[in-house]
Amino acid sequence: MTNRSDGQLRGALHGITQLTLLLAALLVGCSPTASQEKPKAATQIDVASTEGDAYEREPTAVAAAPAMRPAQPTSDEIPVDTDDAVWGSATAPVTIVEFSDFQCP
Length: 105
Hints:
The protein has one helix spanning about 1-30. About 30% of the residues lie in helices and about 0% in strands.
């Protein structure tokens, strides 16, 4: 009887050990990487002292940054031949040319 209960105990401990290792591997795999962590503040905020007229001063104006001007789109004329695979009119004002290749590099 002792041999059977020892075998059952070893089997149970073996199963618990495997389950613990599996859970530890899952926890390590689900932990956030350095790129997923929230960025930390680069500088600390200076707190004004309560002495004097710190609360009565007007805030200073911040110079507005110049507005970014969007880049002008460029037009590349791509010839559309009659033997090209097109859907719709080849002389349409807007055409989309798609290239695909089924060969491996």
